[in-house]
Write a structure and sequence with these properties.
heterodimer, A: 113 residues, four-stranded antiparallel β-sheet, globular, B: 112 residues, mainly beta, 0% helix
């Protein structure tokens, strides 16, 4: 039972480099989300996709772009990484109907030097 | 805007005892959901329990129960018969639509 799968699990980048975090879910969920977690904080929403073909900004979208590739996959791109983007990134999904629990991937630990 | 407050940065409990983790919230939305997640030291976010704002009964899931007091805007997590494996960060969260808004978490340490 894979659930939500994130790749990579760890990544180190230099300032200015770009990269894409991948997320896939196998639960046939409509909605997908990207969060970041900084030390001593709860998670904060970066972007979400309520359904295939739509994306919307969350609380902290600056410096990121997203693509809902299909119903299963939702990617997060850092075009020009900055040290302030050092964080743990979580992808989540849920059915999107009503108020439903979100199910999370294991996270990607990203360090920007 | 929604706000979640967890006032206990850290808690200790002895094995087999019950523990209550506090969560208060603020929202003007009439319909919302309240959630608790567990984050062990390995880092994953594990969904524990959910309460809808219109639910009459408090939610229970095994050893977890949610003490929902709507008038006080509180949604405390009660863990009965604590186990060593319950040691983790616990996050309260709420939503009225898509985004989950999280508190800063409570670190729980279960001692033998």
């Amino acid at each position: 039972n894979a659930g939500v799968t994130q790749t990579p699990k760890f990544q180190v980048l230099k300032t200015g480099q770009s990269m894409t975090l991948q997320c896939a879910q196998d639960m046939n969920h409509n909605s997908m989300y990207w969060y970041r977690q900084d030390p001593g904080m709860g998670l904060r929403l970066i972007y979400y996709s309520a359904s295939e073909g739509t994306t919307d900004k969350g609380e902290v979208p600056n410096g990121y772009n997203v693509s809902r590739l299909n119903k299963r996959e939702f990617s997060l791109r850092l075009e020009s990484a900055a040290p302030s983007q050092t964080s743990v990134y979580f992808c989540a999904s849920n059915s999107g109907t009503g108020v439903q629990p979100q199910h999370f991937g294991d996270g990607t630990r990203l360090s920007i030097l | 805007a929604q706000k979640i407050t967890q006032t206990q940065p850290g808690m200790f409990v002895q094995e087999k005892e019950a523990v209550t983790l506090d969560c208060t919230y603020d929202t003007s939305d009439p319909s919302y959901g309240l959630f608790w997640y567990k984050q062990p030291s390995s880092g994953e976010m594990i969904f524990l329990i959910y309460q809808g704002s219109y639910d009459q009964q408090n939610a229970t899931e095994g050893r977890y129960s949610l003490n929902f007091q709507k008038a006080r805007k509180s949604a405390n997590l009660v863990i009965s018969a604590s186990q060593l494996g319950d040691s983790a960060m616990y996050f309260c969260a709420m939503t009225s639509g898509y985004a989950l808004n999280f508190g800063k978490g409570t670190s729980l340490l279960v001692t033998p």
